[in-house]
Known about the structure:
- This protein is an alpha/beta fold.
- The chain has helices at residues 17-28, 49-57, 72-76, 86-95, 123-144, and strands spanning 6-11, 33-38, 80-83, 103-105.
- The protein has one domain (6-141): Rossmann fold, CATH 3.40.50.2300.
Amino acid sequence: MAKVGSILVVCVGNICRSPVGERLLAAALPECKVTSAGIGAVVGAGADETMSEVAAENGLSLDGHVARQFTAEIGAEHELILVMEAGHKREITRRAPQLGGRVMLFDQWMGSKGIADPYREPIEAHRKAFTEISAASEAWVSRLAPKR
Length: 148
């Protein structure tokens, strides 16, 4: 796969799944600009408290995250747009058809089933989402990281 210089990670609220995906990819791909947004973002909110707790259990900090709304302009600034569910891909393509070719599922290399939204669910749902995002992130990194 060609070198990718920028990745946008998208979910709905930009407070649970996409901040985790963003931080995991950013840590593993330091030469790549990685940000996140939501198609129905809780604009200005920090990361979800339960997801922050789960991330911390796994050595990942979501401190300082600020949710923002996906726009065609934000999407256009990124070479690759990774979404958590097939519906997110449809929504981005509806809002910004010119970006359709850049949009792929975050779990593309893990079966493309999508990663369920744990928002307002018990902590177990957050742990499951974190585990799935982490595995999918490793699969992307193995394809995008420069071979040493």
